[in-house]
Amino acid sequence: MLSAEPIIYGMIFIGVLVMVNGVYLVAFGKSISLSNKVNRRLEMLDKGERREDVLAKLRKEMDQHMQSRSLPLYSLLADKAQKASIAFTPQQLIMVMGVAGVGAFLGLTIGTEASLPIRVVMGAVMGVGGVYMWVSHKANKRLSMIEEQLPDAVELMVRSLRVGHPFSSAITIVSKEIKDPLATEFGVIADEATYGRDVGEALKHMAERLDMQDLRFLAVAVAIQQQAGGNLAEILEGLAKVIRARFRLFRRVKAITAEAQWSGKFLSSFPLGALIFIQVAKPDYYDEVLDHEWFIPACFIVGIMLTLNIFVMRALVNIKV
């Protein structure tokens, strides 16, 4: 007799992801989405919010997660949430984890016959794991978009400088002409410069917050020009070529290592997939060995080996560009 429980577990986990994303969009509006055509900062300004209020709100969202690394459990999420610029406060994100865990527990209670300890553990795992997966996906997507936008943004700054605009104005032009997420990042820098912050320092802070090497190159180039002088347009033009070449090389390396990456994912997921298939097709398959003294230790050993396989395969294909 086929068992539907594994399918129910998967549907509940997907439901957790959908719920978290839905709550996020309802709480902060469609403008928070990376696919929004109008950048979020300009949309907030168009609604009549004061410039200093928009700056304060965006800066708080961008910096709040790294300041909360000491919170229990939250240290696992802080770095990813920072790069994703999640608008939820750390306390709200922890609360979302709790709500998602309770929702998953209720779903398991209604849809499965699992024992109470299993439902509690799986509810907690789905709540924390679902939120972590959601934040990680948003961080990876956001950083990928910034990496792709950055060469065009630097070239736009070069053109602005060559027609006579000061660098602060070039930053402002970039914040208006390109799309999110980089538009809002540069918009915050432009506003900070307007209120007296050094542009080079603001760029350095953004590079450290997003942990991107190309942004560090930009911050260093601007800082050197401010201290030693020189033609900033020529410096940035060369930097744009370097960033674009690194981006092409990164994509090429990614394409070359794609087979190894998918092999690692397959080798890691196949045993779990086989286990689920066996449980669905023949739920009593392991009944004869469940009481064996080596059954539980063997399960732990297999789990440890699968986890090590994930890290080893990731290290093998993680080529720095």
UniProtKB/TrEMBL annotation:
GO CC field: plasma membrane
UniProt key word Cell membrane: yes
Transmembrane segments: 6-27, 93-110, 116-135, 262-282, 294-317
Keywords, sorted A to Z: Cell membrane, Membrane, Transmembrane, Transmembrane helix
Membrane-topology descriptor: Multi-pass membrane protein
A Pfam family per the record: TadB_TadC_N
Superkingdom per UniProt: Bacteria
Domain Type II secretion system protein TadB-like N-terminal: 2-142
Compartment(s): Cell membrane
Protein name according to UniProt: Bacterial type II secretion system protein F domain protein
Species per Swiss-Prot/TrEMBL record: Pelagimonas varians
